[in-house]
Amino acid sequence: MTMGRRGWAWLALAALLCIAFLRFCVRFVPADAPVATAPAPGSRAVDNGELLIPVEGVPASALADTFTQSRAAGARAHDAIDIIAARGRPVLAAADGRIEKLFWSEEGGRTIYQRSADGRRVYYYAHLDGYAPGLREGQGVRRGTRIASVGSTGNADPAAPHLHFAVHAMQPGEPWYRGSPVNPYPLLARAR
């Protein structure tokens, strides 16, 4: 069986279309490449300071500086702020960076540790109700990207869902669970 001129022409056209499709429509990405996602369309992020307020729709006027309050009957300092919000309210990345660790702990419940793009800070989000679909360790995130939802997991009062948000200054090579506490309140509410 031989192929005539029309057969060869159709075969050549099909090959060209396949090459054009692969060139302009398909992007090959290594499996371990970071995934940067954009903020959700229509999200209402509030940006009043150096960092984005990490709960959608919460204004700076609703924040309270609870950084130095004692916890566990005075056994430790809070070293974070609590952002009160309805269960399920979107939690947003406070800055560009990478998801360092998704972790469950007795105190924090469902948590996220996010390292800043420059590696100098780790942002800690705790008491989460759930992670955003597809969120994974190593994933790159942009400021304002939905990463989770507000909840009351861990030792949080189930009747008072909130985001426990902490910032840690990191030294080069320091692991996600270390760092020195930094008060997030002025970083979130600077323009208040």
TrEMBL record:
It holds the Pfam family Peptidase_M23. Keywords: Hydrolase, Metal-binding, Metalloprotease, Protease, Zinc. Residues 77-183 form the M23ase beta-sheet core domain. Its cofactor is Zn(2+). GO terms for molecular function: metal ion binding; metalloendopeptidase activity. It comes from Sphingobium ummariense RL-3. One of its GO terms (biological process) is proteolysis. InterPro entries: Cell_wall_metabolism_enzyme (IPR050570), Dup_hybrid_motif (IPR011055), M23ase_b-sheet_dom (IPR016047). The keyword Cytoplasm does not apply. This is Peptidase M23. SUPFAM superfamilies: Duplicated hybrid motif. The keyword Metal-binding applies. It comes from the Bacteria.
